[in-house]
Amino acid sequence: MKVNKELLKGSTAVLVLTTLAKQDQYGYELIREIERQSEGVFAFKEGTLYPILHTLEAEGWVESYWQVHDGRKRKYYRITDKGKQHVKERKAEWQLFRTAVDRVIGEGGV
Questions:
Q1: Spatial contact of 87 and 17, defined as CB atoms under 8 Å apart
Q2: Where is the signal peptide, in residue numbers (predicted)?
Q3: Most buried one in 33, 83, 85, 86, CB count within 10 A?
Q4: What is the domain partition of the chain in residue ranges?
Q5: Which class in CATH covers the domain with range 5-105?
Q6: pLDDT in tens, 4-44
């Protein structure tokens, strides 16, 4: 089952930041890791991911650096302290949102 793009739209930044909080990664590696963790539900294309990364970098939530890996020069991304704080706030917001939606649609056990 595919997820509606409108549902995904507001979550892409926190998905990327949360993944980077675990380990610095380059773009393609990040795409694969998010797809793996979501069991294929979230499959970003490079044309989707890189604008997100550029926005996160402009916000100061991630920073990039170049590194040679297996003889190839790759641009890696890492989360900043400001990005970690942003993730913390978004996770709290998500928990509140998810709980409220579950209550309304009858999935919250209330």
A1: yes
A2: none
A3: 83
A4: 5-105
A5: mainly alpha
A6: 676 677 789 999 999 999 999 999 999 999 999 999 998 88
